[in-house]
Fold each of these.
Amino acid sequence: MESFGDILTAMVTPFTLDLQVDQIAFAQLIDHLLSSGSDGLVVAGTTGESPTLTDDEKVGLFRQAVEIADGRGPVIANTGTNDTAHSVALTRRAEDAGVDGVLVVTPYYNRPPERGLRAHFTAVAAATNLPVIIYNIPSRCVVNLTPELLAELSGIENIVAVKQANPDLEQSRRLMELCDLGLYAGNDDMTLEVATMGGWGCISVASHLVGSRLKELVTAARGGDHVRAAALEKELAPLLRALFVTSNPIPLKAALNMLGHEVGGLRLPLVEASDDERRLIEDELERLELL
């Protein structure tokens, strides 16, 4: 299938003062993203504080995103957990909500062996007609999906892509040699390399702030304008580091609030950015003339 677009934004979940989902701010953020470089949206992922959202809150966000996006870009629902039955149930609810695809992460904490991983992704894919993007992020899940296993899973008709947050780029290159599974950079600082090797683009955090520049970077890299792509990567690199000075989405929510998007605070165990972290983020927003 064709890609979902070059830049998919892994959205934050805005909260009110009492840490309830802020539907008004969520709708406003969708409009902002789809008009500033994002081709589509990933809803209720890690950046959206999925560990502290209930299933009903997630499904409500899926429905609202589909309604507000209104065909302007695909809506991808994060439905993966470390419980296969739970992932299947949430995937079915996401499909009923009208989303365009699902993102399914490697089961975390229980560390299944390879045959368990194979069975997990096979079961989730079998439960839906939607396209499935696998999410490989060994830094959070401990377990890594090898290129060989991903290539095997690509033989399942509706497993169409991987969000690859393994910084070992040789594994991404090996994957592209083995199969035609779509490849998305799962870390913003991998965007240039993934686009250059023919990947689909990036599922991004920084696109909340610099979506148009990331979109231009992917377009330049894919079009062979390596000088422009490298210049954009160099320009954005300090911001990308600042956005991960502590756990995501703490710095990102601080940045969005500084820019007037009013996405609110964070649910525990995540906490507000420290003064030092806020100064670093503010410096980067000023350097890029975003403030």
Amino acid sequence: MAASVAPIGLIVNPRAGTDVRRAVAAAATVTVEVKANAVRRVVLGARESGANRFVVHRDPHDIVRRATETIRGLDLVWVDEPMRFSEEDTVSAVAAMRSMGCAVVVVLGGDGTNRAAARAWSDLPVIPVSTGTNNAFPIFVEPTVAGSAAGHLATGLCSPDDTATSSKVVRLVVHDPDDPGGSHPDLALVDVVAVDDPYVGSFELFDPHTLRLAVLTRADPVLVGFAGVGGFVDPVSVADDAGLLLRFGPPVECPTVVRAPTAPGHFDDLGLAEVRRLELGEEVDVDGPVLLAFDGERKRRLHAGARATLAVRRDGPRVVDVAAVMAGAVAHGAYRR
């Protein structure tokens, strides 16, 4: 293999597609075997494109090892970080992939997995392959093709500068007068939702009565979740230089009531007191006490007296256009013999 071929980062979330929402909604389960098969296809696709060096991380189920143990000629560089069995494993692994010069990172997971990756590498060149519950950010692409596209980026046949677009994110800064530690920045790829909920770690469905506010980077009626809710009233595409603000209230008191799927197979009636497009960079303040959920997962308690400032910006991960990469490879004669 030529020395100029860069490594490919490979992230697979062993917990994606397995949480309690399978019991309380109708989400499908994504098994370890399915994930291992997807990893194998990514690797085989990349190898056919001329790339065989991968930076990978360990997980409790040895998914990458299972997927690759019978494939010869691979150079697997394992991230040497202790497992914490949380999203911090993804954060530390992607940080290592950046330092090792990965041309692109293929992420197998949902919105939460990709959010963790973006925390480590703000302008991450990523091919997000959908395997989670919340899949507004990942794309539905055959893993073989995703791997082939990653391989073309690793060999330099195509460049992320020409085939990837910076995504919108919700940037968040928390101001807490009782915490002298700083402003605590954070981000979401699809939505930040403020709820009146006592349980930070809950994966239960959102109770419509607890919803207060949502800031969305996209709103699309073909999606499930709050991005889908927004799409039912004012669609905002990933290409639009705008976000969307939703303020919730009791349905009997709101001018707009929408019935939408807030989780796979689960519909609710949601009262909307306000629906408004946001310009990029326009700030929205949220006062505590509320609980903040990022991309469908409850993450941070905002105490009374604290305030969070939210803004949609286009400075997130660079999502690779797989079709554009493959078209470029074909134009270069990559598949002609």
